Amino acid sequence: FELNEAFASVVLKFQKDLNIPDEKLNVNGGAIAFGHPLGATGAMITGTMVDELERRGARRALITLCIGGGMGVATIIERV
Questions:
Q1: Assigned architecture for domain 8-78
Q2: pTM over cut 0.90
Q3: Which residues pair with 68 in a beta bridge?
Q4: What is the pLDDT of residue 18?
């Protein structure tokens, strides 16, 4: 699971509600470790997911982001 860590409390809430174990959450680090550059977070998360798809031999990933003003975006990527 890759969760955007713009706010640590949000990640902790989702982790608790979805029962995500620590060892499965942001396995390569997240925004708290790498920083949270406004306008580039989506590209960073997408790049991380592409790397993880290749590393794991997985096929699909779902990426979600808030984009401010109460809006959000979701993207499904597929490795072919």
A1: 3-Layer(aba) Sandwich (3.40)
A2: no
A3: 71
A4: 92
